[in-house]
Amino acid sequence: MNNSGTLYICPTPIGNLEDITKRALRVLSDVDAVLCEDTRVSAKLLNHYGINTRLISFHKYSEKEKSTKILAMLKEGQNLALISDAGTPLINDPGVYLLEDLLKENIRVIPLPGASALITFLSGVFNPSGKFFFAGFLPRTDKEREALFDKYKNTTVVFFESPNRLLDTLAFLDAYSPDRTVVIGRELTKINEEILHLKPKEAIDYYHSHVLKGELVVALISDGEEIMKIEDEKILSYAKKLDKLGYSAKDSSKIISSLFDVPKNYVYALIIK
User: Fold this and answer.
1) Which residues of 54-202 form beta strands (DSSP E)?
2) Do 267 and 211 share a domain, yes or no?
3) Which of 10, 66, 246, 254 would be a feasible disulfide site paired with 81, CB 3.0-4.6 Å?
């Protein structure tokens, strides 16, 4: 590393102002400036904690233009923090072009742990497969959405959605996979927080008679039962072939688990019976 400053990737609360770490507050207090999407939004957070650090507007429309200036500030030895309006920066937020420039220049970047709508949501979701793919915001056309869900058909797909598009998305999911569960997280950590596990049609009916506004995270849950539909006989057949090739039961269970999306421990227990 050189004598340049450091850029801290600093998560902020997604709703409840208490959801920020002591380390994040210290960093926001100590840096020379804070890069933020909307200075008005970020000022409320800093004012709440009595932090007077200078705010610099840095959003998706100005990112490319301002990255050169920010790079120069860091090269001068200034320390900066990057925050978004809410949650962990660079998760569908500005910063990717800046980060690319800093990595090329070997300038230190330190990501801090903290609030994230994605991880907060997933911790309250019943997801039997234990796997997920984060899609950001879904494509606009049904053809593109279908291709995405086909590609990850054995994996829970998680995505951000806006209130004015949710019913259209639910209609698509109802046509695409009506029997799978959709989980909708709305206004996480806020007063009107809710996490609903429903079929697509049930969710459509629900939001026709309930308030639909605020930040949304949605998941189409993979069918956990499908994972266990591989017959034991088929697993044992593959295990015998691998055994003849000299693979141990442990290695065979890893291979079969990867091939059929079956839990490794389940395969291993079956093989050593």
Assistant:
1) 54-57, 80-82, 109-111, 132-137, 156-161, 182-186, 194-198
2) no
3) 10
